[in-house]
Amino acid sequence: MALLIATFVLTGCLATAFLMIENIAADAVRVEGDPLTDDQATAQVVESARPIVRVAALRDATGGYAFMSCRNADEPPYQVAVYMSFFVPQSDSAKYLKQVAASMTAHGWTVAPSADEHFGLPLTKDGVAAVFYANAPDSQFATLRLYGECRNTADHRNDNPVWTEITGGLG
What is the pLDDT of residue 21? Predict the structure, then answer.
């Protein structure tokens, strides 16, 4: 139980740091297609996370999501970003992550070329991008990041809380 709590705290800290320093888009971001409501943008990514946990049999998955600006620190459009961690049940994390990727590709995910991704394996399905990789400081856990489309035009500058926990709904 203590390990699960520590993982949850680590996931939250890493996600907060990640969301604060990550700027993934250029200044000129256009919304492609109709804008997504908050509920639609959230469902796009969270509803992608649940089957991944199930089909890849991810153990002790913890995580949450936040709205992230696609333009800069806080201007629309936004995308929902899910940040999860999960237990790696063997000492060979690279082999296990290949098995996770195989499970995902067997269920419709495809390998996505990404010039900006320097680590992890990028996959995509239905407008959602996924990247997962082994955690360097703790090889017992791996990280999965999911990003929705940049189609939410609501103002999320003052979201409180910024981070929404979804651990209970992942399994």
Answer: 38
CB-facing half-sphere around the CA of 115: CA atoms within 13 A: 1
CB 139 within 8 A of CB 88: yes
Q: Do 66 and 15 touch, CB atoms closer than 8 A?
A: yes
∠ CA 148-133-97 to the nearest 5 degrees?
A: 105
Which residues lie across from 68 on neighbouring strands?
79
Q: SS3 helix, strand, coil % of the chain, rounded to 5? A: 30, 25, 40
State whether residue 70 is helix, strand or coil.
coil
pLDDT at residue 150, rounded to an integer: 95
What residues contact residue 127 under an 8 Å CB cut-off, 6+ apart? 44, 148, 149
Q: What SS3 class is residue 41?
A: helix
What is the C-alpha separation between 99 and 168, in angstroms, rounded?
24
Task: Please give the model's pTM, rounded to 2 decimal places.
Answer: 0.78
The tokens for 146 are: 């999911």
Domain that holds residue 125: 2-169
pLDDT at residue 73, as a whole number: 79
Rounded-to-integer distance, Cα 143 and Cα 2, Å: 19
- End-to-end distance of the chain based on CA atoms, in angstroms? 16
Neighbours of 164 (CB within 10 A): 15
State how many domains the chain has.
1
Ranges in the chain, pLDDT < 50: 2-28
